[in-house]
Amino acid sequence: MNKTVLHCSVLLSTMLLIVGCSSTKKEDRYRMMSGSDLLQEGRSSLDGGSYKESIERFDVIEARFPQGNYAEQAKLNKIYAYYLNRDHKEALQEADNFIKLYPNHPHVDYAWYMKGLVNFDKARSIIDKFLPPDHTKVDQKQLTDSMEAFLVILDKYPNSVYAEDAAKRVIYLRNTLAQSEIHIANFYMQRKAYVGAANRAQYVIDNYDGSPAVQEALLIQVKAYRALGLENMANDRLRILQKNYPNYAGLKSL
């Protein structure tokens, strides 16, 4: 055998032996630790920014203590660890699994909150790239999924510590989704697709009541109905706009 090849083979074998011994020592150490100690180590790694290491410890807890409080807490901690490590898919999977396994758990509201937060951050990472926000880039599904999770908290867990923040995020999400629809309606107006523009505006009025986008939706309808020769409908929308939003700057364009 070539000496160089022989040397490499010996070196590789030695490295594999070292890695194997290291893994064995780590497994033996974990085997000697209590669930409480493992949970504490996982939290310490999480606090220290070693997210993958913390996930590894929480996995060991689930494997060694599959039933009971340790496994439940490990699952909750893993959601946050994956979130901080920007492993969005895994974080959502862990949140969904926890909700399915423990629908009546006293901290299931946290799983719902994290589910909303992960989708919220995924969508915001796109929106925040554009100043002002380019609503053609909005992923409506992520925003809708996020809002639905936060709404579960407000509906089922109104006294949750996460309820106040969830409510604020719902307002932001509704406004963003409504403005995205307005963007599409204006796109139709520019291309003289007036029926499509009026319908999109109506969708905003029907689904995002109270959103600032409603006044712009009414304005679009006035212009669209006028362009279609539907003066009665245009005047009806104008009266609603003037009555409810007398100070709206867009009225000057009519």
Automatic annotation (TrEMBL):
Q: Which gene encodes it?
A: bamD
User: Does the keyword Protein transport feature in the UniProt annotation?
Assistant: no
Location(s), subcellular: Cell outer membrane
Q: Which residues cross the membrane?
A: none
Q: Which HAMAP family match?
A: OM_assembly_BamD (MF_00922)
A Pfam family reported for this protein in Swiss-Prot or TrEMBL: YfiO
Q: Which residues form the Outer membrane lipoprotein BamD-like domain?
A: 34-237
Note the subunit structure.
Part of the Bam complex.
* Bilayer topology: Lipid-anchor
GO cellular component annotations, sorted alphabetically?
A: cell outer membrane
Query: What coarse category fits the chief subcellular location reported for this protein?
Result: membrane
Signal peptide range in chain numbering: none
Record's keyword terms, sorted: Cell outer membrane, Lipoprotein, Membrane, Palmitate, Signal
| Main function | Part of the outer membrane protein assembly complex, which is involved in assembly and insertion of beta-barrel proteins into the outer membrane.
Which family, according to UniProt? Belongs to the BamD family.
The name of this protein is Outer membrane protein assembly factor BamD
A Gene Ontology biological process noted in the UniProt record is: protein insertion into membrane
PANTHER family assigned:
MEMBRANE-BOUND LYTIC MUREIN TRANSGLYCOSYLASE C, SOLUBLE LYTIC MUREIN TRANSGLYCOSYLASE-RELATED
